[in-house]
């Protein structure tokens, strides 16, 4: 029996219902058959996010080798089939029906596939010599073959006439990126320390002095981040060779701020919690938008802080009422008393007058009072802060999930104390209404 990813199957079922409100022409269909000796257990339909492939749907293969997808394209553009080894690029819009055949690892489109996919298929055939190399072939034989394909491709692209002018632009860019990726992949994999035939290539001299792409368009390709890694790894091993060629030097070669930020996100240091915090602090300013900032601060694979006194504390980073991001690292040299609260939390609001008293009493001392709201409604939070003239540092998290996972915040208010160097003092500190807190703070500040 053919098994299809649940969201694609449900869309298919919903489409068949007369009251569904979704027309069949809003869907695209991909049908295929796997043949040959190379086994395949699953085929995935992929999209691209930030230069890496992302699974959109998957299906197992039926006993006769067939598979199918039916889905609503989020937008007209490139989608990819992945068989576990190779990606097959397709240009898909609503209403398309594409039929494919995979024989011994090679994808072929059959039937009426449209002018865009015919052009993509032609480019795939032209590119094939750049993806194969016999064991007996000399390393340097690749480079005249590459130059020959480039020349042929340039002539081909000049002759193309296609109704969709946007697709023509995308095709030209895609071919340019594919050629760069093929070339860099080859030298990164096959270059030996004692060989340097690639240096005779005009294309090599064109790309190697400085990373050749000046904007973030490469992030639309499934190999975007992988290309960056391969390029700089090759350059470190076979161009710089002696001395350090650091991530900072790699970033200096990348002209696009967005691409620079995405590479920082792809290379996050997770060796230890302290190294992650240092990495976060160093590169946070390179993030270009709120989505990137959140991905850095809330990286799912980051190590967790040890919740013990004296251990490195989480570096809370959130925007204030003006939208400026503030972090606990900004207050190094001061104690940080953190209040996790929300405008809908009655016990939280009951603590505010006591917190305001502490703010007045310790004004000018080496302590910062930081309130972090988990209100989902940002506007409501800002209005509350303004109307009640709340002092201290007012930050907005907007959601429970944006708080450090290791704190296991299950209820609020929650109070936290961090020392001058950024280490935990208490992850469940006393409430401002408790007189013992004032005494504790005074004793800490005397040290």
Please characterize this protein's 3D structure.
- This protein has helices spanning 6-16, 115-127, 142-159, 165-190, 202-208, 224-240, 247-252, 257-266, 273-283, 290-297, 346-361, 378-387, 435-446; strands at residues 28-35, 42-49, 52-60, 66-71, 77-82, 87-92, 97-103, 106-110, 317-319, 325-327, 335-341, 367-373, 393-396, 414-418, 424-426.
- The protein is an alpha+beta fold.
- Among the domains are: 25-113, Immunoglobulin-like (Sandwich); 307-445, Glutaredoxin, CATH 3.40.30.
- The strands form four sheets. The chain has a five-stranded mixed β-sheet, covered by helices on one side. Strands 4-1-7-8 form a four-stranded mixed β-sheet.
- The longest helix is centred in the middle third of the chain and has 26 residues, at 165-190.
- It holds the Pfam family AhpC-TSA.
- This is AhpC/TSA family protein.
- It is found in: Cell envelope.
Rg over C-alpha atoms, rounded to the nearest angstrom: 28 Å
Helix content: 25-40%
CATH fold node name of the domain at 307-445: Glutaredoxin
What's the total number of strands?
Answer: 15
Structural class: alpha+beta
Tally of DSSP helical segments: 13
Straight-line N-to-C gap: 72 Å
CATH-defined superfamily of the domain at 307-445: Glutaredoxin
**What strand order characterises the main sheet?**
13-12-11-14-15
For the largest beta-sheet, the strand count, sense and barrel status come to: 5 strands, mixed
Subcellular location: Cell envelope
Keywords: Cytochrome c-type biogenesis, Disulfide bond, Redox-active center
GO biological process, one term: cytochrome complex assembly
Pfam families: AhpC-TSA (PF00578)
């Amino acid at each position: 029996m053919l098994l299809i990813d649940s969201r694609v199957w449900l869309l298919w079922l919903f489409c068949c219902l007369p009251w569904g409100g979704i027309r069949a022409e809003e869907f695209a269909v991909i049908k295929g058959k796997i043949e040959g000796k190379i086994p395949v257990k699953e085929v995935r339909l992929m999209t691209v996010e930030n230069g890496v492939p992302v699974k959109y749907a998957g299906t197992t293969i039926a006993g006769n080798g067939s598979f199918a997808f039916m889905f609503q394209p989020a937008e007209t553009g490139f989608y990819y089939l992945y068989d576990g080894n190779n990606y097959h690029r397709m240009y898909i819009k609503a209403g398309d029906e594409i039929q494919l055949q995979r024989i011994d690892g090679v994808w072929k489109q059959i039937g009426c596939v449209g002018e865009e996919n015919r052009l993509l298929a032609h480019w795939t055939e032209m590119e094939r010599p750049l993806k194969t190399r016999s064991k007996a072939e000399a390393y340097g034989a690749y480079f005249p073959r590459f130059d020959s394909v480039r020349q042929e491709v340039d002539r081909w692209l000049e002759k193309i006439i296609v109704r969709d002018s946007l697709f023509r632009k995308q095709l030209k860019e895609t071919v340019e990126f594919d050629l760069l990726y093929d070339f860099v992949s080859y030298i990164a994999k096959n270059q030996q320390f004692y060989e340097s035939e690639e240096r005779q290539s005009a294309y090599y001299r064109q790309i190697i002095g400085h990373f050749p792409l000046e904007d973030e368009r490469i992030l639309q390709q499934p190999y975007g981040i992988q290309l960056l890694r391969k390029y700089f790894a090759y350059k470190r091993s076979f161009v710089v060779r002696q001395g350090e060629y650091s991530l900072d030097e790699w970033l200096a070669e990348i002209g696009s701020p967005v691409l620079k930020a995405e590479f920082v996100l792809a290379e996050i240091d997770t060796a230890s919690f302290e190294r992650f915090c240092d990495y976060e602090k160093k590169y946070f300013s390179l993030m270009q938008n709120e989505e990137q900032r959140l991905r850095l601060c809330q990286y799912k694979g980051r190590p967790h802080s040890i919740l013990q006194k004296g251990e490195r504390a989480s570096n809370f980073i959130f925007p204030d009422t003006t939208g400026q991001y503030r972090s606990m690292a900004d207050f190094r040299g001061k104690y940080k008393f953190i209040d996790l609260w929300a405008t809908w939390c009655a016990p939280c609001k009951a603590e505010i007058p006591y917190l305001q008293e502490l703010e007045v009493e310790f004004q000018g001392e080496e302590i910062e009072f930081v309130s972090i709201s988990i209100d989902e409604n940002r506007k409501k939070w800002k209005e509350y802060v303004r109307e009640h003239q709340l002092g201290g540092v007012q930050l907005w998290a907007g959601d429970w999930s944006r708080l450090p996972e290791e704190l296991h915040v299950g209820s609020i208010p929650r109070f936290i104390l961090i020392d001058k160097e950024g280490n935990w003092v208490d992850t469940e500190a006393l409430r401002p209404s408790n007189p013992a807190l004032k005494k504790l703070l005074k004793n800490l500040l005397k040290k």
